[in-house]
Amino acid sequence: MADVSLRNVSKAFGDTEAIKDLTLSISDGEFVVLLGPTGAGKTTLLRLVAGLERPDSGSIVIDGRDVTKLEPAWRDVAFVFQQYSLYPHLTVAENLAFPLRSPARKLTEDEIRMRVAEVAKLVRIDHKLGNKSTRLSGGEMQRVAIGRALVRKPAIYLMDEPLSSLDAKLRGDLRLELKRIQAELGATMLYVTHDQIEAMTMADRIGILAEGRLVQMGTPREIYTEPANLHVAARLGQPAINLLPADLIADAAAPTGTKTIGARTEHLTIRRAENGHAHGTVDWVEHLGDQNHLHLTVGNRKLVTLTDPDSLFKKGDRVTIQLRAPLYFDGAGNRIAG
Ligand SMILES: Nc1ncnc2c1ncn2[C@@H]1O[C@H](COP(=O)(O)OP(=O)(O)OP(=O)(O)O)[C@@H](O)[C@H]1O
Ligand SMILES: [Mg+2]
User: Fold this and answer.
1) Which of 152, 185, 195, 220 registers the highest number of CB atoms within 10 A of its CB?
2) What is the whole-number distance in angstroms between the Cα of residue 48 and the centre of ligand 2?
3) Measured from the CB, is residue 74 less than 6 Å from ligand 1?
């Protein structure tokens, strides 16, 4: 495994600037997740590292070696693509063995068989080694695709939303497995996704990608508690952070220059207004099983927060709202330390 860095990398397709002056360092053995919406430049970034695209400017260094002008084959990366990309006519075992059969490797059949068995076990597909890859469920195919990358020990693994086509249960399981595998192998991993849960649960560090720019980089906790701006704050948190005009709910602690207050569930204390003053009204209570979403109207704004399922709020209740150390943003959308 190795450390990887991108220095001032830019890439345009015609008028579309897909990656803009992006600088990023990944340490040996680190799991970095880039989080961004569709079109943010995630796939382009991975293709640049893999050598499937050439940057217009900037450089890419893998394990101390400038690979900017090297062909993909010489970069020592393994790529898991956004869509399944198995060889349909081959069995699971043959798919897994494929990257090991390159003439450059000179592995014996025994060595290949051992490595395939090892990886099949790792991604829990060892019971299907003889199956044709078309005769697998979506989740199994994706496990083979991940296994086919893991069968090699490259400088870095590049993963392009490998779990996005799977159902929620399987996605949850594979998320944990990938994290376990990465830790076991001490693998350097650059993983891109639009799924905030994947980013929060797997990453050593998260990078927030927006319109080809790396907006902020930090540990999941840093990104969540100290977002640089409104954009980053809105990317993380379930339900999404409530962004409110500074004067909607009185907050004596708001620093001067505050234009917007960012209030997540943990920043809000909601109480039923016994009599007299209320800030807002309960619109509805959404039951999710282990918790409830409480939907409120405050002035002309809608707010969503979590409550525990035993809370007795109901539609029409008038409530008071207290803010506890929320996030503050200035007129340009940048966070002001509270
Ligand atoms: N080969 C190409 N030719 C022209 N434009 C491209 C090409 N590849 C990507 N783009 C454009 O570059 C931008 C970034 O695309 P990219 O595929 O990297 O986004 P993404 O973050 O992976 O999105 P998604 O989440 O939908 O996969 C988009 O505006 C896209 O239309
Ligand atoms: Mg993509």
Assistant:
1) 220
2) 13
3) no
pLDDT tens digits along 134-154: 888 888 898 899 999 989 889
Residue nearest to atom 14 of ligand 1 (CA): 41
Q: Which domains are present in the chain?
A: 4-231 (3.40.50.300), 242-336 (2.40.50.140)
User: How many whole angstroms from 19 Cα to the centroid of ligand 1?
Assistant: 10
Q: Whose CA is nearest to atom 26 of ligand 1?
A: 38
Which listed ligand is nearest to 20 at the C-alpha? 1
Q: Can you tell me which atom of ligand 1 is nearest the CA of 44? A: 18
Beta bridge partners of 91: 132
Tell me, using a 6 A CB cutoff, whether residue 38 lines ligand 1.
Answer: yes
